[in-house]
Each structure stands twice: as C-alpha cells, then as structure tokens.
Fold DNA polymerase IV.
Amino acid sequence: MRGEASVLHADLDAFYASVEQRDAPALRGRPVIVGGGVVLAASYEAKARGVRTAMGGRQARDLCPDAVIVPPRMEAYSAASRDVFAIFRDTTPLVEGLSIDEAFLEVGGLRRIAGTPEQIAARLRERVRVEVGLPISVGVARTKFLAKVASAVSKPDGLLVVEPDREEEFLLPLPVERLWGVGAVTAEKLHRLGIRTVGQLAELESAAAERLLGKAAGAHLHALARLRDPRPVDTTRRRGSIGSQRALGTRPRTPDELDLFLTQIIDRLARRLREHDRVCRTVVLRLRFGDFTRATRSHTVRFPTDRTALLLTVARGLLEAAQPDIAARGITLIGVSLSQLGRVDSIQPELPIEWDDGARLDTVLDAVRDRFGAASVARATQLGRDPGWSTPLLPEHE
C-alpha cells in the first residue's frame, strides 16, 4: 500500500524576474532579464525566446533584442523570500528549504484541520499571490522527488497533484532530463544509448544502470526511475557550509578586479556568519576557468573565526596560488564557501580576550548596514568600483 500524496514542492516562478515585474508594473508581460554580463534570471516572456539562466548577456540580447535588462537587487529578493517562507511555516511546521525560492512541505497530518493536501496547496498558492504578489508553482506527490517533478511540469504558476495510483502513468513517459540529478552530460550519455524517457531507464536492471552511469549515480537514478525515494521532508538538517559565487563572463579579468570580487564575497559571508552567531574554520575557493574546467582550493585556520580580515587574508592566499592557472586559461566564475561551521557560544575563547581593530570594524559596519542597508557603506577597496553581487551556492539555504 503506497502512502498518501502529502509532500508539497513549492517553487517560485522565475523568482528574481518575477520580483522585478511585481515591483515595476511597466515590466509585466514584457521579456525581462536580470543581470547584464551573465543572465541571472529571465522572465517567462524571455525564456520563450530561448533566454536561459547563466547564458552570456550578448547571446541573450541577440535572442531577445527587445528584452528589458535590469540590475539585480539582492535585498529585494531576500525580503520576498522571507515573506514566502513565513507563509510556508504558517502552513506547516514541517518545512525543508532547498534554496531562496523553493521548499518541501509535509502536510499529511493536517487533513482534519486544514483539508486535503491539494486544498492546502491551492490555499498556499493564493496566499503567496495575494500577500507577496508572486506566482508560485506547487507539485503534490507521495515522495519529494515526484513532488519536485510535478511542480516543474506544472510551471508556470500551476498546481499538479500526482496521486499514488497514477505515478507510473505520470513519470515514465517523461524525458530522462526530468530525473533529479540528470544534467546535460548524463542526458547525452543516456541519449547515445537510446534511452530518452524515464520508462526506458526503468526497464534496465540496476546493475546495468550502475555500469553505464557509475555505481552511485546509476543506483540513484535507477531508483528514482522505479519510483523509489524514501527520503522524508527533513526539517532538522543543519547547514554544513555557506557560500557565494559570482559569474564573470568570458572577458579577461585583472588581478585587481578578482580581488574586488573576492572582497565583496568575503564581506558578505562574514556578515552572514555574525548575523547567525556562527564561526568557521575552513575557507574554500572555487574557480571555473575559461575552458570550463573547475578547481577547488581550501585552507583551514587553527581557531574558528567570523572576522572579515582573517577570512579575506586566507582567501587572497588561495587566489594568489591559483593565478598561474587563471593567467593561462582565463576565469569565468569565482566563489567562496565557508565550512566547518560552529556556534559562537560553543567556542572556548583563549585568554586574554582581545577586541582588536578588525573586530570593532566588523561590528560597526554590521550596525550601519543593519540600519541603512547593505549598500550604505563599503570598504575602501570597493570605492568608485562596480559594486557587483554574488549568488548563493546551492543547495545551501537559510
């Protein structure tokens, strides 16, 4: 006996672009691209013309010359996300956030007080539309995987329920790209083998899938294709790291430009640590080169810290070590993750405790930004230069 379809996957539609259209009525119904050098988000009007996230700005403008290009407003997106997640948590205490714009909700125990899962999903969509002014798509199914697929199929601004007795009817005809974890490379490999639908993958034996795709990936995808996904909605998972990244486009970047981007990223991440009373020990630098290869470099400090100056010094050392590769291959993305997180109150301080100038500076900057906004004050290295912005690394979430 299969369980009830009680897992909701709620996913805001073209989130950044929808916030821009909400806040500027003149943009509604028009193709909107967020970000100029690299597409950070595109409205459905722009997507219909072939524009996609992470596409170069020039290619996007060639595909959609009448698009309205707007700079990103991270504070507006974060505020909208908080408002939406407040509705999620008002709907059910069992919420597992996946990113700034999507979450799983378990509503199976609410039938007597709130109605069926479909009724709850419909009410949630209406609340997000009325209270936050944004479209949201919701999939309802027995498992997280099927709920996520259902929300994707229902887009834009849709609601789709996959009842347990028609799961195979829904899933098996879909292209393999719908499986959670199938990217372009895996899809191409499957296509070369004549496997284009989920049903065709499900027909394979598990051992054959593992042999073709690798043991871990093959087992995972084969299980999903055969409707096996035992993971419950997880509300207790703690974040193991936080991170930000910036796409740089394809033009050459000077060391000074890269240092500016790195400073912006570290400044933001260190502030997030302090906002949540967290410290970290490991700094991880992530780079994507012009030839699409990637590199990861890391350094672990002796004592946990949330100090901007120390984290920036470590990150600069990692970036300096990577300069020969950058000079030879170019760079298209720079990102930083802070890991081995802990709580401030769990750290045994060394004596004597010294409040150095760096700590006082961090405290003052945090206070000014809390009162007047993130853009109200900057470090000297950023004066007169493109303020830029960084996007969260997924699947990290608040």
